[in-house]
Q: What sequence folds into this?
């Protein structure tokens, strides 16, 4: 006989499996699209997240990784002429990461590719908003 605790554990395991499966499909989608532009998935993620000037710490938070990993990725992007480090306007200890014109153009191409056949494209905009709200709620615990 299945107890309520067993049923809850099964439901959570199934849900975790679905979330993990979706995350894997999204990661594969990003890797495939990034490769068509000569980028790694990490470089593509950094470009996607660079919606404006930001510090290395801000980018690391958006990429959900350690600042040291972000530094490695930004070094590569800088070497490709896609990102520049500028003095921060209010904090002399920090640098602002800024896309070059070439970086901004590549980011636009990347964003266009990422929406093509996205694992989420089967969801309506309303479904995506609902999923967003549910995932945000699960992550904040409220």
A:
């Amino acid at each position: 006989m299945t107890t309520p605790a067993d049923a809850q554990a099964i439901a959570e395991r199934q849900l975790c499996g679905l979330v993990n499966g979706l995350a894997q499909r999204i990661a594969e989608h990003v890797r495939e699209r990034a490769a068509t532009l000569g980028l790694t998935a990490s470089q593509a993620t950094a470009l996607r997240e660079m919606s404006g000037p930001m510090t290395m710490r801000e980018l690391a938070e958006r990429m959900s990784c350690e600042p040291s990993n972000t530094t490695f990725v930004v070094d590569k992007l800088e070497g490709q002429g896609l990102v520049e480090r500028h003095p921060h306007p209010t904090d002399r200890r920090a640098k602002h990461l800024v896309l070059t014109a070439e970086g901004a153009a590549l980011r636009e191409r990347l964003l266009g590719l990422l929406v093509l056949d996205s694992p989420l494209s089967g969801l309506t905009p309303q479904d995506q908003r609902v999923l967003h709200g549910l995932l945000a709620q699960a992550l904040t615990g409220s």
Notes: The mean pLDDT is 93. The CA atoms of residues 68 and 109 lie 27 Å apart. The chain has six helices and two strands.
